[in-house]
Specification:
By secondary structure, this protein is mainly alpha-helical. The chain has five helices and two strands; from the N terminus they run ββααααα. Strands 1-2 form a two-stranded antiparallel ribbon.
Length: about 130
């Protein structure tokens, strides 16, 4: 996978790439009302179990993007998608705390290009 738009994690001895695709962005926006609300939602989770559920959901959706891309490119040998249950069973709460950094990195990389191109456009605008 392209390292410039993903963050790698290891679940149960298998490496997964977390990628913020347009599909993932739509799912996140549907659940949280937009990417900007995601951090606030995770920080304000009422209890530990709810916070874990949110991180598990995010890991599953972001890790499945790389599998979906792989399956799109290799239609004859599709891989199974990761389930939330598998993430719960194959990880520890300590793992999930570390994965939060990878989630943040994937989100940053997924939105980085848009921010850079907007800044370049505004710099090139003539004044006066």
């Amino acid at each position: 996978m392209e390292n410039e738009r993903s963050a790698a994690i290891n679940i149960g001895g298998k490496e997964y790439e977390l990628i913020l695709t347009t599909r993932a962005t739509k799912a996140i926006a549907g659940r949280y009302g937009g990417l900007e609300n995601l951090g606030e939602k995770l920080m304000k989770s009422e209890n530990f179990e709810m916070a874990l559920d949110e991180i598990i959901w995010l890991i599953t959706i972001l890790a499945n993007q790389s599998i979906l891309i792989q399956n799109l490119r290799n239609k004859n040998s599709p891989e199974d998608l990761l389930t939330e249950e598998e993430v719960e069973i194959l990880t520890t709460p300590f793992d999930l705390a570390e994965y939060k950094n990878a989630i943040t990195e994937a989100m940053f990389k997924g939105t980085k290009r848009n921010v850079e191109s907007e800044e370049e456009t505004s710099k090139n605008v003539e004044v006066g």
